[in-house]
Recover the amino acids of this structure.
């Protein structure tokens, strides 16, 4: 009797909820025929995009081509007008294990009113795994400290976010995403204006996440030189997907990601 009561108190997954054991074998991202507009003009048209586990994908395109919008649609922050979005086999709204997603938005907000220190904000990424009521155990604290060091903010770990520069704040958000060790990490222009040394550390952390944890990564950036050797695919967007293949194939068509990323921005400009 008591056992039945206890069981009846346990939340049961609805028949529509994803089954965790199966999710691990399901693609992190699958978009089919996705279209979206904010108003009259279409911003995304008929987008088909899949990302596999352990795949490191760059998303590029000229300003206003719909990259941030596509990111928000695939994370379920915007609903498409038509088409189907799946994250680990579920619709984004039904994905229960939100910690599996890491997202660094193009313009992280709220740092003026969030009274947190660097390490506290990075810890919040870790808490997303354990639940907000959870506590950080030594492994969690190690992951948090490692993430803070990986973005070279260890010396600033106890400073309030509001006292950091915009570029430093951006690195805190990157560290928070790394600390949660997500299965899918989406970064929207995270290294714009970040210095070369930080870019190198950033690259090392990304490669670690992909190769050691098998995470899928979608990186929106114009500066791909630092990760050119690590990318599985480059997706070029301008309302529609214009190209989706390996950097080598892109290079054969005459566009180089280059050590300093010289060619790519010029080529993107020419797509306007
Ligand atoms: N909240 C919004 N309301 C209305 N229109 C929007 C909104 N956000 C973006 N847009 C428009 O949608 C189009 C795509 O914008 P989006 O931010 O997705 O481009 P992007 O590729 O990320 O550009 P950037 O390289 O500058 O970051 C642009 O024409 C933009 O003006
Ligand atoms: Mg954008």
């Amino acid at each position: 009797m008591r056992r039945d009561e206890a069981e009846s108190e346990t939340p049961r997954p609805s028949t529509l909820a994803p089954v965790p054991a199966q999710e691990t074998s399901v693609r992190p991202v699958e978009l089919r025929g996705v279209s979206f507009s904010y108003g009259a003009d279409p911003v995304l048209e008929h987008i088909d995009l899949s990302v596999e586990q352990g795949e490191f994908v760059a998303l590029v395109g000229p300003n206003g081509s719909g990259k941030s919008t596509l990111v928000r649609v695939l994370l379920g922050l915007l609903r498409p007008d038509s088409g189907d979005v799946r994250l680990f086999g579920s619709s984004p709204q039904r994905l229960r294990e939100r910690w599996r997603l890491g997202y660094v938005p193009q313009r992280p907000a709220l740092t003026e009113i969030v009274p947190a220190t660097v390490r506290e904000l990075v810890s919040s990424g870790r808490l997303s795994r354990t639940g907000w009521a959870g506590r950080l155990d030594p492994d969690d604290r190690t992951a948090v400290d490692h993430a803070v060091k990986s973005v070279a903010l260890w010396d600033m770990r106890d400073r309030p976010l509001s006292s950091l520069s915009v570029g430093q704040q951006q690195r805190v958000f990157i560290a928070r995403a790394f600390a949660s060790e997500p299965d899918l990490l989406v970064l929207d222009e995270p290294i714009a204006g970040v210095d070369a040394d930080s870019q190198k550390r950033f690259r090392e952390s990304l490669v670690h996440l992909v190769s050691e944890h098998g995470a899928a990564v979608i990186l929106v950036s114009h500066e791909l030189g630092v990760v050119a050797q690590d990318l599985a695919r480059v997706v070029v967007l301008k309302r529609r997907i214009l190209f989706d293949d390996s950097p080598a194939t892109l290079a054969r068509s005459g566009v180089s990601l280059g050590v300093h990323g010289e060619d790519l921005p010029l080529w993107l400009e020419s797509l306007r």
Summary: The chain has nine helices and nine strands.
